[in-house]
Amino acid sequence: MTLSRRSLLSGLAAVPVAGLASPTILRAASHSAAETAAAPTLPVAYHSFQIGSAKITALLDGHFLLNTGQINGFDQVQADATLEGSFYRIKDSEMSLPVNGYLVEQGGAVTLIDAGTADLFGPILGGLEAALRAAGKTPEEITTVVVTHLHPDHIGGLIAGDGTARFPNAEIIVGQGEYDFWHDDAVYAGVPQENRGFFDIARASVAPYADRLKMFEGEADVMTGLRSVPLPGHTPGHCGFMLETGAAPLLIWGDLIHSTALQFARPNWTLAFDMDPEQTVNSRTRMLDRAASEGLLVTGMHLDFPGLGRVERDGDAYAFDQAPWQFSL
Amino acid sequence: MTLSRRSLLSGLAAVPVAGLASPTILRAASHSAAETAAAPTLPVAYHSFQIGSAKITALLDGHFLLNTGQINGFDQVQADATLEGSFYRIKDSEMSLPVNGYLVEQGGAVTLIDAGTADLFGPILGGLEAALRAAGKTPEEITTVVVTHLHPDHIGGLIAGDGTARFPNAEIIVGQGEYDFWHDDAVYAGVPQENRGFFDIARASVAPYADRLKMFEGEADVMTGLRSVPLPGHTPGHCGFMLETGAAPLLIWGDLIHSTALQFARPNWTLAFDMDPEQTVNSRTRMLDRAASEGLLVTGMHLDFPGLGRVERDGDAYAFDQAPWQFSL
Fold it and tell me: Are B123 and B35 in contact (CB under 8 A)?
């Protein structure tokens, strides 16, 4: 299957599904045709830090707006109490959330973990490739792309505008269960026509890598120094990755948390994007608890850029302690 | 007076003065001749945020290493207690501190507040101009440079390698008292020959702007929307600037704090760079107290990049609450 970017966008723009797409994506996608040409240049932001033998670079793709109507269980009074005294604000029922990817350089491998949105979300996102280049690497130099799950803001950047591989020399590592779900024709057949955009994008994004696709199952060493950590719920095969660095391990946890502002304090609040909310909360609280107990260094694809920090316990819930810019270990 | 960069560096390298220079500067300066050619590319980091009608861009010049021996009153046990559980570490008696400059775009003015080190501190600093360019502005587009004080890490970037003005179209705004101190021939005559590097740099950096130098005294409207806030002690004329934005004021406080890690918690700890330690502490505690009381937004030239945050009270001392990357107001 090779779909052009244009057909993917039109497919995505037609998706009104709770649990898969959202008004935010719809709006961002509907922006793209009209506004891409006149888009202001996105700020370029990357941030490198060293942990043991690994050089990690956070790559900012951009920010999207989450509407509080997309938060399951959202309560304005509780949200106000959580945000009081902080820098976070809900404005016109919206909050700004980043999309990050992470470059890992270790032992000769140049690994990208998640690939950003490219142009799938319009001009307010899609900065990851420019950030990668500003950090001194080209798409051609990437040896491996590891993906946490097959949602469009994580894999949009896998393919170029013409549907070909954006990383011509990279192998792609993806969970078998995640791959299977989005490629399951029975599931696809049961999804209404207008909801198939996510499936089409998932399929089209990995298709050009068919001859260099490496799958793993459950908890596995997916490459040297990188072990998968299944965190199902957000999607069936959603997972994080534990990076061994020789100093301290770094957990790159994908979409375990979408809102730094709200979900550490209220881990039971899920998003319309979380396909199985109960399993999402279960994976989240188990992982947050472990991260706090072990004092793990963590990063995530929607943690406030650059995303490096640690989880702390705060009463019955949690808090995020972000590392200062100059932190290295 | 026009000094070449080379003669400035040799002057600086000769300065062993507590209260003016430091072993760190010596070491950084001594690096530069040998290592500049082979220096790795500095990471480029800038971060823009909007506050009301002002677009502010933090520009990272780089990081230098502060030796704890340069901290007046430093106590390892107290430091360990302050840093416990945080990301901050003292390694081989050193801590990494940033140098930031701030670009302010408002009402047609393109204002740079402090100009970074250029090549005065060797290859680990000097990134400000690249950050400025990455943010979309050239030195030629700067209409005004405002300086908090005339230390080399704030004004090194004012001049090019040949001693000419790096900002050919900018007027320079500097405090009269600060200017006078570094240009006082009686003071200069009393300073040992080997300690005159700072004076030579201060003089040489503003000299090319002699015909477009604007001075102010005390608390004054130095340009539209920007008011000086005297904070003497670090240098005789050291000051911050209060930016009026129409939303909330932003205090750009220069060197009120050098170590985000230590000095909010221990505001009585001064550095060897602070010329009058008692006055430094007095200015600091008064300003921190006001910032906490008023909930002021603040940035600073040595606050952890990008430096935007607020001051909170923490018992008898203070803490810093850093704004998330996506914060705008």
Answer: yes
| Cα–Cα distance measured from residue A99 to residue A118, given in angstroms and rounded to the nearest whole number | 11
Residue B38 pLDDT > 50? no
Check CB contact under 8 Å for A306 and B325.
yes
pLDDT range class, residue B40, cuts 50, 70, 90:
low
Q: How far apart, in whole angstroms, are the C-alpha atoms of residue A103 and residue A111?
A: 6
Please give the model's pTM, rounded to 2 decimal places: 0.91
Task: Answer whether B87 sits within 8 Å of A134, measured CB to CB.
Answer: no
Distance from CA of A305 to the nearest CA of B (A): 6
Looking at the complex, report in whole angstroms how far the Cα of residue A56 sits from the nearest Cα belonging to chain B.
13
- Contact list in A for residue B42 (CB cut-off 8 A) is none
Quick check: B126 and B36 in contact, CB under 8 A?
Answer: no
Q: What is the mean pLDDT of residues A54-71?
A: 97
Tokens of A50: 């060293």
- What integer pLDDT is reported at residue A40 of this predicted model? 56
| Subunit contact B45:A325, Cβ cutoff 8 A | yes
Q: How far apart are CA B26 and CA B157, in angstroms?
A: 18
What ipTM, to 2 d.p.?
A: 0.90
Q: Is 3.60.15.10 the CATH number for A5-322? A: yes
Contact B324 A260 (CB under 8 A): yes
